Amino acid sequence: MLSFLLNILLASNAQASIQMALSDGAKPAIQRADSIQFEMKSSADVFSPKDMLSMPRPGQGVANPDGDLVIVPVSQYSFETKKTNKTIYISPLDSTIGPIEFPLVNGGEAFWLDSRTLAHVVNENIFAVTLDYNATAFASGSSSFVRVPRSPYLVGSFPIGTSPTNFKFTGSKKVHTSPNEKDDLQHILVFSANVYSDYDLNTVKEQDEKWENRGNSALVYDELFVRHWDEYVGEKKTRLFSVELNWEGGDSGGSWRLGTDYFKVLEHTEHYTPVEPFGGTDDFDVSQEHIVYTAKDPSVSGATHTRQNVYIVPLKGGLVPRELTTGHQGATHSPVFSPDGRWIAWAEMAEDGYESDRAVLVLYDLKSNKRWYLTQDWDRSVQSIEFANDGESSNPTIFVTASEHAYVKVFSFTVPDFVTSETISKPKTPKFPKPTAITHSGSVHGLQALHNGKLVFGRSSYTGPNNVYLASGASKADDHINFTRVERITQFGVKELKGKALDHGEQFWFKGAEKGREVQGWVFKPHGYGNSGDVAENDAEGTKDNSDKKEKKWPAVFFIHGGPQGAWEDGWSTRWNPNVFAQQGYFVIAVNPTGSTGFGQDFTDGITKDWGGKPFVDLLHGWKYALKHYPIDEHRAVAAGASWGGFAINWIQGHPDYGFGFKALFCHDGIFDTRNGGYTTDELYFWDHDFGGLPWSKKAKETGEKFNPSQHVDKWSTPQLIVHGGKDYRLAETEGLAAFNALQQRGVPSRLVLFPDENHWVLKPANSYKWHYEVFRWFDQFVGKDAE
Ligand SMILES: *[C@@H]1O[C@H](CO)[C@@H](O)[C@H](O)[C@H]1NC(C)=O
Ligand SMILES: *[C@@H]1O[C@H](CO)[C@@H](O)[C@H](O)[C@H]1NC(C)=O
Ligand SMILES: *[C@@H]1O[C@H](CO)[C@@H](O)[C@H](O)[C@H]1NC(C)=O
Q1: Is residue 82 located within the same domain as residue 120?
Q2: Number of domains in the chain
Q3: How far is CA 149 from CA 68, 81, 107, 129, 561, in A?
Q4: Beta-bridge mates of residue 246
Q5: pLDDT single digits (tens) 709-744
Q6: 94 assigned to active site
Q7: d(CA 255, CA 760)
Q8: Whose CA is nearest to atom 9 of ligand 3?
Q9: 38, 47, 619, 738: least buried by Cβ within 10 Å?
Q10: Keywords of this protein's UniProt record, alphabetized (predicted)?
């Protein structure tokens, strides 16, 4: 213990503070000098925090009905103007030359009216933008392959102050290139808006003003939620509306027109969807006749229950929504229709109150009103769902995304005969499908099956942000569809990352807490490792046998993820991007301990009521493995984590006996007092589940106390940086304050950085830059210089 402290002494210039720690004094610590000179590394071959934060941030691509063009919303921050601009990019889906920036100023939301017309939503107005796409010109390399032959025109306006969003248009499912073609489709636009309890778009502005001018600032509550994620809950709630949006005019010309009757499709219910705080267009889908959606069960409190039911209602409402779930399940998400509108699929968890239960794909047949739990034998959790567009096939094929071994992959499976055929009865021991993985790297989201059998999706990785991919050459096997070709369509980030030599990350597996169970981790090599920063793509076997690399030892950061039911996955992040840390000269070790997702449900469940148990055995074994196999200087190692990872930092701080030996710690939005957390967090079910009961129950009190970092403050001695968001209502700001108060009274070198306007995540680019600066500055003080 003493030598451990002496190491800190050598590596830091805070000797007075350490003395106090040794004497357990209660005197205030000397304020750390603000004058410490520190600059983050940045140069042409370094991927700096600034580089990362000013990269384009592409959203989800959406293909047109014909499947030849895709639009991608992109936002980008500029450190010069201190502003984020938003643009819509458009790219042909048949090549890798794109993307071409499409000049939609204020380009936030857009959707397809038909294959050649974009609806562009600016504030409360919808404009139609007609496109003229010349594939021949594109193939010959001409940049003017898309023209706008007609000035954008107003399609219609929503009442002022309503901020409509989450648009889904029934017409955009039809394949056609001319809006003049007569068809018998319903053209209905479904969207959401925040409205008062009168469910009326027309009174929103007036009621907003009345609330603003009520003469006091009190917020009054009789029931939960009080606050949720980063907002105090008010009277306004998210509701769905539908409205007609038709093509009007003859063959020679015409226009799209928005109707003026808004249908309150969820009237006479207490259904609110998309579900706050993260719900979006994934929470509902439209067919030619219906809307299917997920909403919190109105009969129980959303703060103590995760249950969400799936309902179906006609496009224009008018009937009481019909529930398709049993009403006894837990959360549901991602309800989608099959292309012919007969089938509905959604992801469903069995246990109410547990947000990280395994999500099973449920298939509902509107023809027979039967419900099937199709992936019940598959030990993966369904994240998103899309029906293949395979024409008249009687057995639909379904694509899903799911986490598996630190990737988010696309899987597919074909619905078995006993489900689809009315003549085949259910076998005694039915063989339920086990989906087949058809992608194997990166993190996939936003599946979109095209009418031509191709599949569009978004994928990011540790080495690049989200880009649009196209899978083609479908081949149908007995039980799944595979593709012979997967190509990247857009090129976001390629230019910006040129010459930066980002590391793909290398996986390692080691023995974990449970007998016979291997646990997975990632290693990222520091900038400058292996000569001239060339962390080679092909350097798969790592470093063990290379003796000249062995001579130099490097500082390291140990990453601990939040959740705790989450994982370090091969995907792009602007918050915890391992390459940004590696590029500042650190080895990054990121382990997926017990509780992590994508390694089987029992592994995820293993952290329940065991927060300070098995996960720390895994973390320690992973860390020791890394020390043994990579040239890490163990005297220059630090650890960092947010949320549950922040709990883990505070827990490690109080457990020097574990022997991690970190020289400095960084806790972002972590937990200091576990038991208090059970009363102050917004989603109370989370704590109740993970600690095995209500906070005052005997069992949960015991577990909460057993794994309470605040019980071990008497052993806190490692320098620690604390960052907390003032709008963090998941783990309240007082958790960060309490930990800082403890460290200061103990005289342990510590710094508190508060972001009053950030939630559980630091999202504003300028704040994120400051976050990175403080973190790297902190680490640099303790492990920056080679001790040798
Ligand atoms: C958006 O910002 C980026 C970065 O500052 C810039 O390159 C781009 O031209 C901007 N686009 C628009 C449409 O202003
Ligand atoms: C499309 O582009 C090609 C090549 O640039 C050009 O020859 C052709 O006239 C264009 N077609 C139309 C309809 O504009
Ligand atoms: C899918 O197709 C690709 C490309 O042809 C092939 O490499 C892969 O093994 C196939 N996967 C399965 C599960 O059949």
Answers
A1: yes
A2: 3
A3: 19, 33, 19, 9, 50
A4: 257
A5: 999 999 999 999 999 999 999 999 999 999 999 999
A6: no
A7: 45
A8: 438
A9: 38
A10: Hydrolase, Protease, Signal
Indicate whether 234 and 174 sit together in one domain: yes
Question: Which residues' Cβ are closer than 6 Å to ligand 2?
Answer: 134, 136-137, 140, 142
Q: Which of 57, 63, 132 is nearest to 469 (CA)?
A: 63
The SS3 of residue 697 is coil
Best of 133, 136, 148 for a ligand 2 pocket test (most atoms within 8 Å of beta carbon): 136
Nearest residue by C-alpha to atom 7 in ligand 2: 137
Ligand nearest 146 Cα, by number? 2
Q: Assess whether the C-beta atom of 75 lies below 6 angstroms from ligand 1.
A: no
Hey, what are 202's tokens?
A: 């027309």
Q: Answer yes or no: do 365 and 300 share one domain.
A: yes
Residues 6+ positions from 389 with CB-CB distance below 8 Å: 339, 449, 450, 451, 452, 453
pTM of the complete model: 0.92
Find the domain containing 755 and state its range. Answer: 2-51+497-536+553-673+708-783
**3-class DSSP state of 56:** coil
> Do 380 and 417 lie in a common domain?
yes
How many angstroms separate the alpha carbon of residue 431 from the centre of ligand 3?
Answer: 23
Same domain, 634 and 721: yes
- For the beta carbon of residue 712, count every other beta carbon within 10 angstroms: 16
Q: Give the closest ligand to the alpha carbon of residue 144.
A: 2
Q: Going by DSSP bridges, is the β-strand pair 664-668/632-642 parallel, antiparallel, or unpaired? A: parallel
Give the span between the Cα atoms of 140 and 125, in whole angstroms.
37
What are the angstrom distances between the C-alpha of 563 and each of 136, 361, 368, 568, 763? 49, 23, 39, 11, 18
23 annotated active-site: no
CB 366 within 8 A of CB 344: yes
For residue 698, is it within any domain?
Answer: no
- What 3 state SS string does 130-157 have? ECEECHHHHHCCCCCCEECCCCCEEEEE
- Residue 257 to residue 759: CA distance in whole angstroms: 40
In a domain? residue 692:
no
Residue 700 lies in a domain: no
676, two tokens: 């208090």
Please write the tens of the pLDDT for every residue from 463-488: 999 999 999 999 999 899 999 999 99
Indicate if 632 and 740 belong to the same structural domain.
yes
Known active-site residue 282: no
- Report CA 334 to chain centroid distance, whole Å: 14
- Write down the residue that tokens 């598996």 correspond to: 404
Residue 347 sits in the same domain as residue 452? yes
CA distance 686 to 697: 15
In this structure, is residue 687 part of a structural domain?
A: no
Q: Which residues contact 203 (CB under 8 A, 6 or more apart)?
A: 195, 196
- 635 vs 638: CA distance, rounded Å: 9
CATH of the domain at 522: 3.40.50.1820
Check if the beta carbon of residue 121 is closer than 8 Å to that of residue 167: yes
Could you give the CA distance from residue 106 to residue 373 in angstroms, rounded to a whole number?
43
